[in-house]
Amino acid sequence: METGELLESILPKTRIKSRLIDLVAYASDAGFYYLRPKAVVQPIAESEIIALFRFSHENRIPLTFRTGGTSLSGQSITDGILVDLSQYWNKMQIENDGQQVRVQPGITGSMVNAYLKRYKRKIGPDPSSIDAAMMGGILSNNSSGMCCGVKLNSYHTTKHIRFILPDGKIFSTENPGDYSRFEQDCNNIYTAIKSMQGQLKNNAELYDRVRRKYETKNTVGYSLNAFIDHDHPLDVLVHLLIGAEGTLGFIAEAVMETVPDYPYKTTAFLYFPDMYAACQAIIPLTVSGAEAVELMDRASLRSIDSLKGVPNRLKTLPDSAAALLVEFQANSLDDLHAKTNLFMASAGNLSMLESPVFTEDAKEQAFFWKLRKGMFPAVGAVRASGTTVILEDIAFPVAKLGDAIIDLQALFKKYEYHEAIIFGHAKDGNIHFVVTQAFHTAAEIERYDLFLQDVVTLVVETYDGTLKAEHGTGRNMAPFIETEWGGEAYEIMKTLKAVIDPQNLLNPGVIINDNKKAHIANLKPLPSVEQEVDKCIECGYCEHKCPSRNVTLTPRQRIVVRRELAGLKAQGNKRDFDLLVNEYQYDGLDTCAVDGLCATACPVDINTGDLVKRLRRENHSKTANSLAVMVAKNFGATAFVVGAAVKVGDGINSVFGESTMRSITGGLKKVIPAMPLWSNQLQATKGRIYGDSDGAVVYFPTCINRMMGGAKDNKKSMPETFMSVSAKAGIKVLVPDDINSSCCGQLFSSKGYQDAYVYTANETVRKLWAWTSGGKLPIVLDVSSCTHTLQHCRTVLSDQNRAYFDQMNIIDSIDYLYDHVLPVLKEVRKKDSIVLHPVCTLKKMGLETKLFQIASHFAQQVDVPLNAGCCGMAGDRGFLFPELTAAATAPEANEVKKKEYEGYYSTAKTCEMAMSDAVSKNYESILYLVDECL
Fold first, then answer.
1. Which of 18, 139, 439, 667 has the fewest CB within 10 Å, making it most exposed?
2. Taking the CB of residue 530, how many other CB atoms lie within 10 A of it?
3. How far apart, in whole angstroms, are the C-alpha atoms of residue 64 and residue 89?
4. What local confidence, expressed as pLDDT, does residue 598 receive?
């Protein structure tokens, strides 16, 4: 019997993933190792975790816990059972007026910080992956980051932990009774920890070494400082769990001490003639109170100099140059300026290429940090196809950092890593270096092996540094723990693992590994697949943005599966290839919303939706494409038929009850899966609108609002509301007579019907040119996604239509309200409190701020949910695959339901339908808010 089937004895089938596509999707994390699990499970309670531990022991199958999968050293993959905590372990509670926060392992660090923001607090660890990294990994890897240094890392800011040992016993340091119970129920562990404490205290040399090595960042092996920082074995154990990478137990919950999130910041790039000169500035900056001092060599700067918005100075630096990204933070402007002035007073003694220019502009600062955080992925994006990107993480004494980097660069030359880059947290002597190479041949693997061994010698023997400062030991540095720590310290670690996990079933191979070649075993293949995805390094930064993440695949996983398909094809494994292709249809293609939000989180702007559109396009038959073109050429008739169908459905509901059509289509869908599910939010548009022949703007009511733009409670239709707002603002509007045969083309583009899309885009632009009197009038659309589609259709236009397009001004209703309506308004009525759902395309167009400001003009309080994201509707996806929309809207809906609002608003009809169904409140266009308040 397969592992997945065996697991059905302890978990429901719906939370066991054992299809081939599931196992492949979870075989990779952000590191460069690959292990395919036997099954993936999603427990929801501690009782199920205990049952999984029991199952693991009874069946001798390893168990590995995983949250965000952003780890880089191979610690969140397994060939056993992978326990995915990303979906059901995301509770968080702020306590003591923000001084502490209680977290479960499956919530991202950035989401915790978002909730803490109102208290002007944040968690201590600040890894660059914080938007995607979850608290389970942040704790289990003892994450630190760019500002927190050593004192504010996970180890030092964790107050309490509730955990489960491999034998199923649960303890919490928050419960005083658990201290005595731990001694009684786990006496062997209690006694072993006591013995190890004594061993360390009786060895002055080792004791001093432990104390000294943790004065800088160090995540090599287990956190030995726990033995000398704490007295009671239970306190020792919970701090050993931090940085144990899931090899000693399961962290079910943690209470963390928060740190100040300073409101005032000033940031600058400092440029130096060479790396050594840059390193001389570290101590003066630290003494001046700099919170962050990020070091970058010329190669790392070059990796990002093609990104949009990069300062021109970055592009003209000499080849030997280096830079520091520096940030000062404070509670007041006076304190902030005092810190910068203190540094500037000593800056004259430094060798800088030019005087520093600090900025206090939040957008500029955010962009600077985006550049810094994007360096690792940026190198991966420009690597040769088929090669792997490797990020190592080491630390040296700050005073010797310049010399150490020069020696490291010599190793790059020796092993011909010509594209290697160096960056890192200079204040802590912690640097990262990135190299790229293939692992296709034994010679390439040997090159990496020899290089890494020389790095180990350089770090440990030459500089007495640290082999892993913050990324965790994983599989990557497991063979070298003893080299860094020595035999006695390593034996303590091995004894600890053996006494807690005697069967070695909890994340085996991570940290404690007898295989001295573990760092070059189970290397991840990265075959060349296709242009859209070859630059992906599988960092996982995109996953929290994806609406299908809790129902099928994430963008990273869609790419992982495409790579697996390429590998299977190359191997000639037709059986698995055909099976995976079949499973990919639903998981990879049908349930992708192609919203493109993944690109907004991707450091190298990969839009997995573009890949899915192309694959859909390639899947269409010639007949299907011809039919789509016929629909496009007869769009007026098509729109009439669809509009009539909506009216018939409305009629049936009015006679037999509001949910009749939903019940009918739901029943049909069980027999015919392709049958769209009726939404109770569907309302036919009644009547038509008429404009002015001498209008100041051209109104392009989108086809969805022409067909189903009606409103409940006998309100005006969406087109009528637009016209009403315009009239109240004294703006004349031209409505084209032949608008009913026009479409932006999104209908065809999103489904991959390229020929139909090309025809529609060209035909619409041709009409727009005539309607606008040769581009003289702006064109306003009332659905943001349609606006975005038209604004980005230039690549498929004919030369003549491109010339037209370049002279036209196509704007969204948000632009119209903000730039045309608000300036002419005088007195308005304000609602008390409203909530917004910013749609995906609004975010991509950068119009969120305008939406918020419009809403604030007409409401006393405006809320944007912290969990606001893509609703998954994606035009028709929610009708065809309602499970996608249900999963996508759940986090936002749960947040919104906690309060009552006077109004619920968005900017796209289908998204409003999805949110209305999810929240059981009537979401409508922001135009309704404006109309009602004028």
1. 667
2. 14
3. 15
4. 92
